[in-house]
Design brief:
The complex is a heterodimer. By secondary structure, chain A is mainly alpha-helical. Chain A is 73% helix and 0% strand. In chain A, helix 1 packs antiparallel against helix 2, helix 9 packs across helix 18 and helix 12 packs across helix 13. The longest helix of chain A is centred in the first third of the chain and has 37 residues. In chain B, the strands form three sheets. Chain B has a seven-stranded mixed β-sheet with strand order 4-3-11-9-10-8-7, sandwiched between helices. Classes of the chains: A mainly alpha, B alpha/beta.
Chain lengths: 481, 385
């Protein structure tokens, strides 16, 4: 079920909100669990069996690890847990890719080929697998105690705001909230505000750029010019940020409506001054997960320089592969990894001496080129596209083809998108609304601020609803992963 | 801008008001079903999905089917479409659906797709396509000549070409050559094909009259009259008895309102108003409806009543004509009917075929092929029968 769908907003959400508020405190988690399972089943009823298996399996593994705390048994159960979790993920997500790439090798050595499979990918499998791994590893590391209550454990895995496309919530960050949480009218309203902002980011900004990016990334080589290739790259760069951060905003907002507080998943990544900085700001929950559960497990920084670089290579290889079973994502991950390693071996020192705007340009350049691999339908198309980005003008009508996409809506959305991504609205809020109006302003000024912000929120909410009602919505990009 | 988990706490008044608004909005469709606040407007031509039954033994298709059913029956889609169109056109000055229609200057609407590409010059014909088209039309003209007829080919320019100054700023030509130029260059020297290039007469006339509708793809009666007069002037060279009816023979009437094709596509028919431009004859028409021959029509043609229209004028000195046409001849039909002893108008579902069965039976003196520029490639798609 999509957050930007009529069934979610006008059926699922009112019913679940009502049931959750009416239900006594003791059964609130049961209500949320039942709702979350319905939410998940909506994307594929028969696939629900996989997540139910994952819930029970990890519940048992968690209990077994705790029962064998500080013994070899705990390590054995953790290993079993990791193998099964990653095995399920590999089977559903990577088996086809593996066979596809193995068969040419097998035929080269005259072995018979493996029959290709066509297993459907359960929605959100990468996310709930990482949630589960986070849980059993945290139990193993004694950061949390194993959850005795199967309902509470199930709710951690399935909680619908973050179930399908994150943020990846670490068990240690939310275990207390699952046990006890409160909702005040102000917290509820702040959740609504965040949800509306996320919905608007998706419907009003991301979809406008998706129209351009989809069109340009479907062009054949002979139709694609250098200028249109750059426009497509810029459009996708904006689209993916507003699409994914919009989803995260909605997830955080919905969480608040039900009393949960998730950690932020984005922190203005496009104003980063290095690729390391970018990964501290982009999909923070995934970066944290890989840092906590892979990088540190590999030895982290506490090993030789060469080993650290190798660990980073592995982390970014996995980051790319996590996004999808395709060479595109692997190259995307390794491309980022290359610049991370480059910065680690001394380029970061050079960067610090460079004028700050050039550091931003460097980051945006690397990130945008990487997005081409991420967005292209296949690796060959990606290389063709990049060739076009840097190609000489092979077509005399480049400007005319470019201008086709630059209508008023694009220009207006681009202005808002750039200001938003650069943190302009945040700065305005922090310096004007928060410091001047709300702290030192008169009652009249505060009222004017409240009313005007209310009008803006309700207007963009209605407009977003209008947009998805008429069927112009597109699925969130991160539902694929 | 540190990544702190900042919760912006709204004031209590704002929190209450926002919560009330939010709850009211998400409950609106449920409430609207019970007590109609916004009346549901159903499209009589749309095949609505029926409510799926909940079958516990086959659950997988249920969510998708229910979602489809719910979206189609949400109750305010028509209003949402209108609101979206109003916002996009009046605030953003863009089309609500750019894959279907572009919004130009002064709210002129232009179909997207082939006509836009024709104007931009990005879908030019290959030499192979040009040769094929020449061959098809030449052979038609040759066969007609063998049975004593003369072949006329009238290419109606797209609205985008005649009123390009109203196209949005982002629609610009990418090349000096156009598909219209290509067709004219290919056919102008063929002695069997009497080509009528309508661009110049229309360009000339537009200084005095609006010739195409703002929110429909078609020309109006004045544009159609200019086209008709150009075609008849061309025919007049071979058939001196055939002369255009003077425009003074008609009264201009603009009382009826028009529901334009483009406007319907994007749901703006209610707020971009336009009057229909009609030329009404001041005299008693010479032509009368003729008896239909019930020629077989293309399967699935949505306007079967328009496939075959026959008009008769009781004047043996006039020639007969078969006019293979599209909707642009709708606006010229009343004029043409006055010029031929028998006019057989064939609307063959935009296939623009030779319709040899009709030509061989009717043995017309004249065949006119009228085609809108946007459909020019259809000539090559049809077989040569």
């Amino acid at each position: 079920m999509l957050f930007n769908s009529a069934t979610f907003l006008f059926l699922f959400l009112p019913i679940v909100l009502a049931a959750s508020f009416v239900a006594p405190a003791k059964v609130k988690n049961c209500v949320l669990l039942f709702a979350s399972l319905i939410f998940y089943a909506w994307g594929g009823v028969s696939m629900t069996i996989i997540i139910i298996f994952s819930i029970f399996f990890n519940y048992i593994i968690g209990r077994l690890i705790e029962a064998n705390k500080n013994t070899v048994g705990a390590k054995i159960f953790l290993t079993i847990g990791l193998i099964i979790n990653l095995g399920v993920l590999a089977t559903f997500k990577y088996l086809g890719f593996l066979i596809e790439n193995l068969n040419p090798l097998l035929s080269a050595f005259s072995f018979s080929q493996i029959k290709q499979t066509s297993i459907a990918l359960p929605i959100g499998i990468s996310f709930f697998t990482f949630h589960s791994i986070s849980y059993i590893v945290d139990v193993y590391r004694n950061r949390v105690t194993a959850q005795k209550n199967i309902i509470n454990h199930s709710l951690y895995i399935t909680l619908f705001p973050q179930l399908i496309a994150g943020p990846i919530v670490r068990y240690s960050d939310i275990s207390e909230q699952i046990k006890e949480r409160s909702v005040t009218i102000q917290k509820f309203a702040s959740g609504i505000e965040r949800f509306i902002i996320g919905l608007a980011k998706k419907m009003l900004i991301a979809n406008a750029f998706a129209f351009v990016a989809d069109d340009i990334f479907a062009l054949e080589s002979n139709e694609l010019t250098t200028y249109t290739a750059w426009l497509g790259t810029i459009s996708y760069t904006i689209q993916i940020y507003y699409d994914f951060s919009g989803y995260s905003d909605m997830a955080i907002g919905l969480g608040r409506m039900f009393g949960f507080e998730f950690l932020e998943n984005f922190n203005f990544p496009y104003i980063a001054t290095s690729i390391q900085d970018f990964w501290r700001r982009w999909h923070i929950s995934l970066s944290n997960w890989f840092r906590d559960y892979l990088y540190i497990s590999l030895g982290g920084n506490r090993c030789s320089k060469g080993k650290v670089l190798f660990n980073l290579f592995i982390v970014f290889l996995c980051t790319g592969f996590w996004h999808g079973a395709s060479w595109n994502f692997i190259v995307w991950g390794l491309f980022h990894g290359f610049f991370i390693i480059l910065e680690k071996v001394g380029f970061d020192k050079i960067l610090l001496r460079i004028w700050k705007p050039f550091r931003h340009i460097y980051v945006l350049f690397v990130v945008m080129i990487a997005w081409v691999f991420f967005r292209a339908p296949d690796i060959n198309y990606a290389f063709m596209f990049i060739n076009k980005l840097f190609g000489i003008a092979e077509n005399t009508h480049q400007w005319q083809k470019l201008i086709f996409y630059l209508n008023n809506e694009f220009v207006i959305c681009l202005s808002f998108a750039l200001m938003g991504a650069a943190g302009f609205f945040q700065i305005v809020y922090n310096n004007i609304a928060s410091k001047i109006v709300l702290k030192r302003g008169s009652v009249l000024l505060k009222t004017i601020y409240d009313v005007s912000s209310l009008v803006v929120l309700v207007s963009i909410f209605i407009l977003s609803i209008v947009y998805f009602t008429i069927g112009s919505y597109s699925p969130f990009i991160y539902f694929r992963f | 801008m540190e990544n702190k988990n900042i919760v912006i706490i709204p004031s209590k008044g704002k929190a209450v008001a926002l919560s009330i608004f939010f709850v009211c909005i998400i409950l609106f469709p449920l409430v609207n079903k019970k007590i109609t606040i916004i009346p549901e407007q159903k499209n009589p031509d749309f095949n609505y999905t029926t409510k799926p039954t909940f079958d516990i033994s086959n659950l997988d298709p249920f969510p998708h089917e229910y979602e489809k059913y719910y979206n189609e029956n949400i109750g305010f889609t028509a209003q949402a479409v209108a609101l979206n169109a109003y916002f996009k056109i009046t605030i953003l000055k863009v089309s609500p659906n750019q894959s279907k229609v572009f919004v130009g200057k002064d709210n002129w609407l232009f179909f997207a797709g082939p006509p836009i590409n024709d104007y931009r010059g990005i879908n030019l014909l290959s030499q192979e396509e040009i040769d094929k088209m020449k061959n098809i039309l030449h052979n038609r003209a040759l066969r007609l000549k063998e049975q004593g007829g003369v072949f006329y080919f009238a290419l109606v320019p797209n609205k985008h070409r005649i009123y390009s100054e109203y196209l949005p700023n982002n629609i610009v030509k990418t090349t000096g050559l156009t598909i219209y130029d290509q067709v004219v260059d290919a056919l102008k020297d063929d002695s069997l094909i009497h080509l009528i290039d309508l661009r110049k007469p229309l360009e000339k006339a537009k200084a005095e009259h609006i010739l195409y509708y703002k929110k429909d793809n078609h020309w109006n009666d004045i544009g159609a009259y200019i086209g008709y007069r150009s075609i008849i002037n061309s025919i007049n060279k071979q058939f001196p008895k055939v002369t255009p009816v003077p425009i003074e023979a008609y009264d201009l009437d603009t009382t009826q309102s028009l529901v334009g094709g483009e406007a319907l596509q994007i749901g703006v028919e209610d707020f971009i108003k336009e009057n229909r431009v009609m030329l009404k004859p001041k005299y008693n028409l010479l032509s009368q409806p003729g008896e239909k021959q019930n020629y077989p029509m293309p399967i699935g043609f949505p306007y079967p009543w328009d496939f075959e229209i026959i008009k008769i004028v009781d004047d043996p000195s006039l020639p007969t004509a078969v006019i293979i046409r599209d909707s642009f001849t709708d606006f010229m039909l009343q004029f043409f009917s006055e010029n031929f002893r028998k006019s057989i108008f064939i609307f063959d579902s935009w296939e623009y075929k030779e319709n040899r069965n009709i030509i061989e039976k009717e043995k017309p003196n004249i065949v006119i092929l009228e085609i809108i520029e946007a459909n020019i490639r259809k000539i090559n798609e049809c077989d040569n029968k």
